[in-house]
What we know:
There is one protein chain. This protein is of the alpha/beta class and about 250 residues long. The chain has one domain: Rossmann fold (3-Layer(aba) Sandwich), CATH 3.40.50. The protein is about 35% helix and about 30% strand. Strand 11 (about 215-220) and strand 12 form a beta hairpin. The longest helix has 16 residues, at about 180-195. The N and C termini lie far apart (about 35 Å).
Amino acid sequence: MSDVLEIVDLHAEIEGKEILKGINLRLEKGELHALMGPNGSGKSTLAHVIMGDKRYKITKGAIFFNGLDITNLNTDERSKLGLFLTFQNPIELSGVKLFTFLRTAYSVHFPNDNKTFQEFITFVQSKAKLLNMDTSLLSRNVNEGFSGGEKKKSEILQMALLKPKFAIVDEIDSGLDVDALEAVAKSLKETIYTEPKMGSLLITHYMRILKYLSPDKVHVLMNGKIVMSGDYGLALKIEEKGYEWIKEKN
């Protein structure tokens, strides 16, 4: 049976303000879905609610993972089941080497893995090289002094090591120049399509990253609701016409 992440009539609020107003979404293993929409529509809120961010209160609806209701599970429990979220603005961790951070995260998710220390070094370096990531970053503190592209590649490296069943990728294209965007997009594609393929929800404002990834489905979120869904052609039409024509239809 294929892995399935399903969101049913999801409503959520923060500090009494309703942000999500009835989200229905179904993602299956191996599918790449793009979630687009103007600023303030609720895209990043949805990402954080899926991962169990306690700042948000779910007032109605549910989230299911392979039929299991995970609506009230903690973030770490969702992560161990196979969910992963990349951060739009990855934080810096002073005093924590990236390699140490990766090894700790890996050991939590794969406690029975028997790699030696040297084998794990080789494993991490091989993944970093596949992403065209400078392996010297592994010996530096997490994200300290990293460029925008290096921070985003660090997030993708974590994903490549943990190999989640579903990845929610929150605006990984934000703040990147053209060259960095292409490098990050290709690294992301390499990771999500390497067997076993993972399901992915890519959140973005813009078409520019999608041309490297060609999503299976595109959804438009406005005012807390998915108001339109389609194939890659929908993203092309948004690039050409913006969102106004969708607002007029709704």
